[in-house]
Amino acid sequence: MSQLEKKAGLLRRTSSSKKPLKEKVVLMYDEIFAVSITMKSKEDPAKNNPRFWDELFLMKVNLEYLESKLESVDGEEVQRIQDNINSLFHHCVQALGEEHQIKVVNALQTLCALFRGVHQKNKSTSGFDIINMLMGFDKAEQRMKDLMERLDSLLCGDGSESLKSLCLKLLLCLVTVTDNISQNTILEYVMINSIFEAILQILSDVSSRGQHGYDAVVLLALLVNYRKYESVNPYIVKLSIVDDEPTLDGMGMVVHQALTEYNRQYKDKEEEHQGGFFSTLTSMVGSMFIADADEKLSVQTNEAILLALYEAVHLNRNFITVLAQSHPEMDIPTTPATPTPTTPTTPLGTTPPSLDMMNNPELPLDPNLQTSNLLITFLKYASIVMQDTKDEHRLNSARLCLIILTCIAEDQYADAFLHDDNMNFRVNLHRMPMRHRKKAVDKNIPSRPLVCAVLDLMVEFIVTHMMKDFPMDLYLRCVQIIHKLLCYQKKCRIRLHYTWRELWSALINLLKFLLSNETTLLAKHNIFHLALLVVNLFNMFITYGDTFLPTSNSYDELYYEIVRMHQVFDNLYCMVLRVSTNTGQWKEAASKVTHALINVRAIVNHFNPKIESYAAVNHISQLSEEQVLEVVRSNYDTLTLKLQDGLDQFERYSEQPKEAAFFKELVRSISLNVRKNVSLNTLSQDILLKEFSTIS
Fold first, then answer.
1. How many CA atoms within 13 Å lie on the side-chain side of 127?
2. Domain residue spans in the chain?
3. Interior angle at CA 692, CA 688 and CA 695, nearest 5
4. Which end of the chain is more exposed for a tag (fewer CB within 10 A), N or C?
5. SS3 sequence, 77-120?
6. 57-86 pLDDT tens trace
7. Across the chain, how many H-helices and E-strands are there?
8. Average pLDDT over the chain, rounded to whole?
9. Are 465 and 391 in contact (CB under 8 A)?
10. What are the pLDDT digits (tens) for 549-579?
11. Domain named Armadillo-like helical: which ranges (predicted)?
């Protein structure tokens, strides 16, 4: 028995000599696809049976068989039965307008099978040929206009929530049938016949958002990425000007819930791991198993929802306010308050938000109750995915998290919120297990402005990823985010009470790592660019620190750290001087670092002799920190520094052209994953048909 026959819905064998019977719907599919040897084309199956199409949509769709049948049709056969495929597509669209709900369900599922089956068979075929095969090129514009209007009507109407969910599944199926969505020519019709308003309506309505919000947000994120660099994408234009607060809040709620669910799953796994036998064994043997233990905590990342967050933050300045929308921090139940739609379940970690929470984005707050917001949830998510960047998906997630933070750090309103001393939060970031420290959650995290959590996240990444497979791109982004935050603090003279010494120590250790691994790293990376960014951060503190460091003591401590770790800066200077005085590809890059080190070297050369003299006069072999600080404070007046231009300037983020290749591959990966999750399986069909049979 062939593979196709196995999928043909065989019913039973009446005797060993008789062929098994087929479902009637399968026989009807065979009529559509059957090609007579004597005929150049196939007659409309409704010619001999006027009720053919009515009967077809009253019967349960055999998705597997229909898709397989489409995939098995040869090139010449396609030409002969094209009229019948066109007719099937046309009647599917017509059936969407039927009052009989079962017909609508079966038409939606048949359309999904048509889109998937035709594309699967013709992966190398041009988009225009696929359009011709499905609809007929001369009628495609009208067919797709009718389809999109009927889907829009179903999504915006007062009908069944199950049908709305099925409409979204069909649209996700249509968008993701090609690996590269920009090569999906059918989407041109989705651009012309926009469903943007329907998506917004779902997000702005509490009930609809709870049941369909996730699919709606992912669909919007994918549509925004269709040929975004090649032509004017109406979804980009419309998303950039949305200013309706309930809609933006709704989008934020969906993203918040998906990230919260991810964080909850990770926390559950972490607690399970820490309380188990493996944890005991690890503590007995030592830290040699920490890496393996951490791998067990891995939870599948959700790049689709992260992409949606990025597009909202990047394209719509009004969405920045949503990041700051406060609400009580609570464990959101994984089951919604209203019945779930009877369509296939959403992917792991994407359960709908609590309807009560979404209806009250600003609930009355108990003064003793910790509050949260989308930005806090995002920072916690980032602290998890940025721990392990060896896996491609987690690397992509980490990169996208840093790109989102870059956009936030450049936004004036976001910066104002981040630095608002009247809006303090306790943000419990996740920390990577390392041999020299215990992975323990600090129960007494102080309540601070959110910028402190952003800086903590950057410091944590810097400290934990100095490894052989060095993630240069992520390090550059981290240092640039810190720089942008410092520029805002300098501009607005914000004296942030932060443990700056942890940042300085992390940056100095990073320079130390670059020096120790110069040969290995230079084979792959321009380490001088990163070194220049790090040195210029110190120059920012040296030149403008008196305007944004919290106290004069902080400024003294900066000089203390530079002098204490002077050997690192001395070694860096020797290295860049050596490279810049020789001919080679890094000559110019190294020369820039040499120039940037002028003030750091001036500080070291000025204070070191003073400290040695103080020790000699007072007969002290090793000075305490306080004694060194006393020398520093006493000798500022005679220190000469050079004013360096451009320290508080930075290049603003631009997606095109630098990030275009990254987003192209990211969207391809998301498209493949969404395609797998859009499952219209037999169980879901049974539930749907049972629901509408009862209604009918």
1. 16
2. 24-193+665-695, 514-651
3. 150
4. N
5. HHHHHHHHHHHHHHHHHHHCCCCCHHHHHHHHHHHHHHHHHHHH
6. 888 888 888 888 887 777 677 777 888 889
7. 34, 4
8. 84
9. no
10. 999 999 999 999 999 999 999 999 999 999 9
11. 442-678
Query: What are 447-497's pLDDT values in tens digits?
Result: 999 999 999 999 999 999 999 899 999 999 999 999 999 999 999 999 999
What's the token pair of residue 649? 């300037």
Cα separations in angstroms, 582 against 250, 515, 591, 595, 626: 58, 18, 10, 16, 42
Check residue 73 and give its pLDDT: 74
| All residues at 6 or more sequence positions from 398 whose CB lies less than 8 Å from its CB, including other chains | 382, 385, 386, 389, 471, 474
Q: Which range, 16-20, 125-129, 495-499, has the best average confidence (pLDDT)?
A: 495-499
Tokens describing residue 160: 């069944």
CB atoms within 10 A of CB 696: 10
On whether the CB atoms of residues 428 and 380 are closer than 8 A, the answer is yes
Question: What pLDDT score does 13 carry?
Answer: 44
**pLDDT > 60? residue 336:** no
Give strand ranges (E) for 211-328: 327-328
Whose tokens are 């933006």? That residue is: 248
pLDDT tens digits for range 435-457: 666 555 555 778 999 999 999 99
Phi-psi region of 493 (alpha: psi -120 to 50; beta: other; left: phi over 0): left
User: What confidence tier does 684 reach under pLDDT thresholds 50, 70, 90?
Assistant: low
**In whole angstroms, what is the distance from residue 202 CA to residue 157 CA?**
11
pLDDT at residue number 696: 46
Q: Contact 247/387 with Cβ under 8 angstroms?
A: no
Q: How far apart, in whole angstroms, are the C-alpha atoms of residue 386 and residue 379?
A: 10
User: Nearest Cα to 479, choosing from 512, 499, 508, 449?
Assistant: 508
Alpha-carbon span 247 to 213, nearest angstrom: 11
How far is Cα 324 from Cα 339, in angstroms, rounded to an integer? 30
Residue 645, pLDDT > 60, answer yes
From the list 602, 631, 601, the residue with the least C-alpha distance to 615 is 631
Burial class (CB in 10 A: 0-12, 13-18, 19+), 79: middle
C-alpha angle 549-488-470 in degrees, rounded to nearest 5: 85
State the Cα–Cα distance between residues 498 and 20, nearest whole angstrom: 76
- What is d(CA 187, CA 194) in angstroms, rounded to the nearest whole number? 10
pTM score of the predicted model: 0.87
- CA separation, residue 20 to residues 63, 392, 452, 660 (Å): 20, 48, 70, 54
Q: CA-to-CA distance for 279 and 108, rounded, in angstroms?
A: 50
Token match 């690192």: residue? 568
Nearest to 538 by CA among 597, 498, 595, 495: 597
Where do the H-state alpha helices sit in 275-386? 277-285, 290-295, 303-315, 320-323, 355-359, 374-385
Calpha distance 378→391 (Å, rounded): 20
Residue 73: closest CA among 33, 31, 124: 33
Distance of CA 181 to the CA centre of its chain: 17
Q: From CA 379, how far away is CA 84, in angstroms rounded?
A: 53
Q: Is 166 within 8 Å of 343 (Cβ atoms)?
A: yes
The residue-averaged pLDDT of 589-608 equals 96
Pull the structure tokens for residue 377.
């949830």
Phi, psi of 367, deg, nearest 5: -60, -25
Per-residue confidence (pLDDT) for residue 660, from 0 to 100: 94
